[in-house]
Amino acid sequence: MQLGMVGLGRMGANIVRRLMRDGHECVVFDVNPDAVDTLAGEGAVGATSLADMVAKLEAPRAIWLMIPAGLTGTVVDEVSAVLDPGDILIDGGNSNYRDDVRRAAKLKDTGIHYVDIGTSGGVFGLERGYCLMVGGPDEAFARIEPILKTIAPGGGDVPRTPGRSGDPAPEELGYLHCGPSGAGHFVKMVHNGIEYGVMAALAEGFNILEHADAGITQAEHSAEIAPLEEPEFYQFTIDTPKVAELWRRGSVISSWLLDLTAAALHGNPTLEGLAGRVSDSGEGRWTVKAAVDTGVPAPVLAASLFERFASRDEDQFANQILSAMRLQFGGHQELPAGDVLEAGGEKAESSSRGQSETAGE
Amino acid sequence: MQLGMVGLGRMGANIVRRLMRDGHECVVFDVNPDAVDTLAGEGAVGATSLADMVAKLEAPRAIWLMIPAGLTGTVVDEVSAVLDPGDILIDGGNSNYRDDVRRAAKLKDTGIHYVDIGTSGGVFGLERGYCLMVGGPDEAFARIEPILKTIAPGGGDVPRTPGRSGDPAPEELGYLHCGPSGAGHFVKMVHNGIEYGVMAALAEGFNILEHADAGITQAEHSAEIAPLEEPEFYQFTIDTPKVAELWRRGSVISSWLLDLTAAALHGNPTLEGLAGRVSDSGEGRWTVKAAVDTGVPAPVLAASLFERFASRDEDQFANQILSAMRLQFGGHQELPAGDVLEAGGEKAESSSRGQSETAGE
Amino acid sequence: MQLGMVGLGRMGANIVRRLMRDGHECVVFDVNPDAVDTLAGEGAVGATSLADMVAKLEAPRAIWLMIPAGLTGTVVDEVSAVLDPGDILIDGGNSNYRDDVRRAAKLKDTGIHYVDIGTSGGVFGLERGYCLMVGGPDEAFARIEPILKTIAPGGGDVPRTPGRSGDPAPEELGYLHCGPSGAGHFVKMVHNGIEYGVMAALAEGFNILEHADAGITQAEHSAEIAPLEEPEFYQFTIDTPKVAELWRRGSVISSWLLDLTAAALHGNPTLEGLAGRVSDSGEGRWTVKAAVDTGVPAPVLAASLFERFASRDEDQFANQILSAMRLQFGGHQELPAGDVLEAGGEKAESSSRGQSETAGE
Amino acid sequence: MQLGMVGLGRMGANIVRRLMRDGHECVVFDVNPDAVDTLAGEGAVGATSLADMVAKLEAPRAIWLMIPAGLTGTVVDEVSAVLDPGDILIDGGNSNYRDDVRRAAKLKDTGIHYVDIGTSGGVFGLERGYCLMVGGPDEAFARIEPILKTIAPGGGDVPRTPGRSGDPAPEELGYLHCGPSGAGHFVKMVHNGIEYGVMAALAEGFNILEHADAGITQAEHSAEIAPLEEPEFYQFTIDTPKVAELWRRGSVISSWLLDLTAAALHGNPTLEGLAGRVSDSGEGRWTVKAAVDTGVPAPVLAASLFERFASRDEDQFANQILSAMRLQFGGHQELPAGDVLEAGGEKAESSSRGQSETAGE
């Protein structure tokens, strides 16, 4: 079938390529004419404006927006102004599902169908296909199902779930009508919330492996930090790239994120050049807020989000407050210089401070 | 090569089967003669006692224990008493790696090689193979490598990690020499710690999906519980079995644990019959303690462990303390019965209590 | 000075009493005429309607609403409709500060000053005074300062902070102009967020004390639950009511919430009759959402909120998912019945299950 | 009564001073002769060695060790070698309660009574008194009760808990016999675990207050970080030193730790000079491990401990792993430089990256 694509960044362009490979016809537009030209060179019909795109599509049309979430509101307004009743407007970006609910309500009287699609797949989507979570009216979903089928991964080599038989259901092909407007991005939001948690579980675990040599490396410790107890049990120098590779095979935690971790560690075993300041896009935040709203405990998902904040030093003031309190009740500086002598057969300047501090807390 | 297997529960028996399929010779023993007979019927050499097993193996021997962790200490003592210098004693169970360190030290002067192997694979290991994390001396590892190769999954259909070439490394075949005694179970411990975190991330996420209809179902709320704000954004009835299936294809969180979740939800969409009292074996606990010992932040792994404790009501006294404090400062019962009238054009008994409680906190 | 009070629940009535004791004149209204009569009998001027109250106050007026948050929006509209420019409308309830921002904006052109006050003090406020966090225009704050001074605790017997001298600042007397509209309830919101965290820290700690006898009581354990390691270190039967009392004196964690805990435990050492289903009002939720919005890590505050959700079994579906996964990969029921025999010199039915499950994970 | 004090750091010296003020006789020793001379100048009997101290005390003796935990084992051995049956040996430092259990067992046959005392009070103990948590045999507790009474704060001006009457119980005077050997340090350990949680709750809350101006300061944001939604609700510049002072009066969270926070912020409102690298002594770690051992959920206490680890950058490798994964699946650098143009009426280089990354996850 025919699809108009607005926004030819990596995701938008690759979806167009995947569609054209499967025989669909794509009319494409981007504010950057070069991006349009490139895809036109690959077989797409280029458009010079939104109006031009609409003119080049036969009614009832389907137009997919693949643009930054911050711009979606404006573009939805612009596109819907030139569409006709019965046309379908798809937001495939990473919008907050709340915006979908609002936009669908706003478009209700125009007769334009609004469809929200959460897509997952990253840079590998062109080959692997994209997992599609769809929200919107039944009628619109039915009409765009042919293109969803193409964009989605299909059954591929994923083993069939025991108990399923017959023709594969849409979810077995990698796309699903999740519910009314907003449901697609809601499911995508939770997907990313889970992703944060899974990533954090892996990252924490590898950090523990990396510190399995604490009994060797922590021979010297500060007076203010609890010494390692039983160093004899932390004498391992674990080869984390090899372990990541190992766990890909037969282990309970084998997963695509582990595959990526193995690839990253194989290419850069010391992770040199990575500062460890971890960004977060909106979905993790929205997921935690949805959990709070609905009274669902989500300590793991929340902790994984807060770890990212802390990686960017957003915990700084809190930590200073903690140091300030310790200075008050213990009378200690952050960087202690020992000045008290204690019994015990030796001059034990620095550890004496640790003692008085903790005994006194 | 030859291997003696002690303990013919599901794991031990299946490992023996996998070995025999590949041409290895197995001498087997279990306190349950029926278990021995079964495997003898499939081609193994049955033994009637540990001594009998030792007699039936050619030196230098390799004996694998696949028994409950609580019994391992005793059996290690029993077996090592009848072994000779140069023999290899393998603990393939789920021992605490600290016990490996202790046992290896104890056996050091006997000339018996002690090897610890963490195995992952669950009930699917017979077909999929088991992921093997090995600790112990180089020499012993080299000698048992042929059986490790057989038990492990091999390369299978897992795509090769970009950048790897040439003959596959052991970790690409599903087994790895992680370090000296204890290193195998240490890596397995962290594996399970991660597993807890991944499972919790999935479980929390599905719980949020399940509550996406809060705007429909929470129409009535208690005076003591914060009401749902903006119920218009929680109007989705999500089909969680379908979503689990969907995410298996092309999504960032595709993983074996997700496969299992999809299978579980397909077979039992309402999870009927499951009380939600979640057990924990030792590894999650050991992982958190190792993180604490080595000063590694592990909030996600710890939270996932504590969620399991709470699922078994181990939070009960803490929760009672919280209710008791609220009773003190707010003067409220857990189950309030309104008795105060407030302004606002209507009798607002119950919500008035909520007001005074929180305003007063 | 003169104040109109709308809402004569416990908080509103006690604030009126505290004001009258100090010579202020109060006009009072409630939908419940009995509540009005009671306070009229103690010296207040009773009003029969909002309009009657406004008529009985001299302009420029100050009216304080002490009503359930759910009703505040309506009553603000009703009262502001009968007020004159220059009058002050105070919301002293537990509103979301976002509502204050919205209401102040809405009233901006009317000339009515909107003031939001977060109050803390609980049932002890009548005697102790209420801690007052005020948001709104400077002019309005200045005009109501006399009544704030009366309602607040004053300096009392709280030792002066080192370094402070001269006349006490407002914050030393228990009230503070925190900023423009919404700032009062914002600070109150964070106050309650902290309160959740402090309460949880105490509750978790007492729960650990309560389980210090695990080495005595956990002699028998399930095959599915990790056994207590080193039971010799958990042989204490701690008298928690006495410990709570003890810590009130000289300890670093002495606090009012600890005082309340001591009182609760002294009166009801086993906390009998408390189900441990812990309510939460909105502030804890709003605090976590504010942390998420502003990118501030708040794992402790979030965990304390989620513990409350879990106390009300909102973790149920997540826990069922966990059990369902374990059933899948381990092949185990939640309530295992042993059926496999293992080596080790004894029939070890139940522990064999634990072994195979964890070794196989 | 008579007491020997070994270790004249700040804590030990101040306890001696408090005892002498109340008429007790103290024999004192420290490896630093100056420390001995100072206290001798204030009325104590100086000793030149442990043997000299023992000689100067009448049997049955009581000797209090106030030395760094790392030295306690050695000194306990040295002192017990020169003591007689019936003598009491007190460890008042911050030992792990497990060491008490071991030491008491070791001394059992010598007839020397071993007593462990957890002390809390910090630098203010000389004036305020020390909260004393005591473990050990009944007989020994009874004999040293006179000195405990002196060292403890006494009833002071702490209001009596409702329902208590008659002569004050020991816990109302600030000391308590918590149980057999180890119970004192066990209770102290949990005390400090709670302290970590309370401190973290306060620190997180103040951090949120500090970021209440995010709507003003976060006008510009990175493409990789979720933008602040609804900046109109984060327009407050909160004076945190004043808020800390305010909450000391009448609020639910008034506490000694809040008093200290107020003092710290008043003296140093921007917390200049504090790096925010927060130390932790052993007790917080031991508390979390005890919770894990006994199956008690302690997410708040654990999170507060992990925050301290993270403040010292112990999360670094985990964060690098997270960045490495994001680089893999999103193809993004940590510090993105926009290079893709998107539709929407404007050049949107940087946000296009944010879009493709999250839409693709």
From TrEMBL, chains A, B, C, D:
Coiled coil: none annotated. Residues 351-361 have a biased composition (Polar residues). SMART domains: 6PGD. Gene3D superfamilies: N-(1-d-carboxylethyl)-l-norvaline Dehydrogenase, domain 2, NAD(P)-binding Rossmann-like Domain. Keywords: Gluconate utilization, Oxidoreductase. InterPro entries: 6-PGluconate_DH-like_C_sf, 6DGDH_YqeC, 6PGD_dom2, 6PGDH_C, 6PGDH_NADP-bd, 6PGdom_BS, NAD(P)-bd_dom_sf, Pgluconate_DH. Residues 184-333 form the 6-phosphogluconate dehydrogenase C-terminal domain. Residues 336-361 are annotated as: Disordered. PANTHER family: 6-PHOSPHOGLUCONATE DEHYDROGENASE. NCBIfam families: gnd_rel (TIGR00872), PRK09599.1 (NF007161). Belongs to the 6-phosphogluconate dehydrogenase family. This is Decarboxylating 6-phosphogluconate dehydrogenase. It comes from Microbacterium salsuginis.
